[in-house]
Amino acid sequence: QDDDPYVALVTIDGGIDRVSAGYLSRGIREASEGGAELVVVSLDTPGGFLSSTRDMVESILSADIPVAVYVSPPGARAASAGTFITAAANFAVMAPGTNIGAASPIAAGGADLPETLAKKINEDTRAFIRSIAVARGRNSEALEETVTIARSYSAAEAIDLNVVDIIAADMADLLVQLDGRTAQTAVGPVVLRTRNAEIREIKKTLLEKFLGVVADPNLAFILLTIGGLGILAEFLTPG
Fold it and tell me: β-strands 77-79, 67-71: how paired?
């Protein structure tokens, strides 16, 4: 590693999908290969797909570099899928005025799931968040309630309940508070050197930005509608 430590920053602002999962995986890999002390994931999300959430949790839990998830800026949220991602981090951090929780699974579009399917998915999701809590030494009961009764917590409540570790006003405050702490990674314990560390942002590629736009459900529906109308027009007026 370089003598001067640096911290890699990955910013996820929006829904959790395959694009954000791929971006996080790439960010962790590049940070590890580049000798970063830590990956900080700045997170503000209303939730997203459970399959992508599992991919992101797997990337964090199997990382050979410490990962901190920072719910920020003030007013941001780690709702639904964001709860799992935050809980999976070595260090779960929230800015003042943020919230976490409301992780009950629902169908695409916000509809309720059929009773039998809902029971199966809820049981699976509850077990998923309990396993994350055990792996990171967090309050499994409080986290499970975000799934079973859609409970949500403020930053202060999350600290009191051992759902998250730190409240940090900004990135500088976060790095000062993490300095000297030990993180358990896939390759063993790592002692952080983050005080005054340089912050290097890992930005999305042009392809990731493009896919992130077209993956938006609202835009996808519009494009599908336009495509359907085009096909209909071709049938009605061939050529």
Answer: unpaired
Question: Is the full-model pTM beyond 0.85?
Answer: yes
Mean pLDDT by 10 residues, the chain (239 residues): 82 94 97 96 95 97 97 97 98 98 80 76 94 97 96 98 98 97 96 95 90 75 88 86
Phi, psi of 11 (to 5 degrees): -110, 120
User: Do 196 and 173 touch, CB atoms closer than 8 A?
Assistant: no
How far from 84 is each of 101, 149, 183, CA to CA, in Å?
9, 15, 18
Q: Which residues are catalytic?
A: 80, 120
Long-range contacts of the stretch 118-124 (C-beta < 8 A, 24+): 121/50, 122/147, 122/148
Q: Is 143:131 a contact under the CB 8 Å cutoff?
A: no
Cis peptide before 73 (omega within 30 of 0): yes
Nearest to 2 by CA among 24, 42, 26, 33: 33
HSE-CB of 175 using CA atoms within 13 angstroms: 19
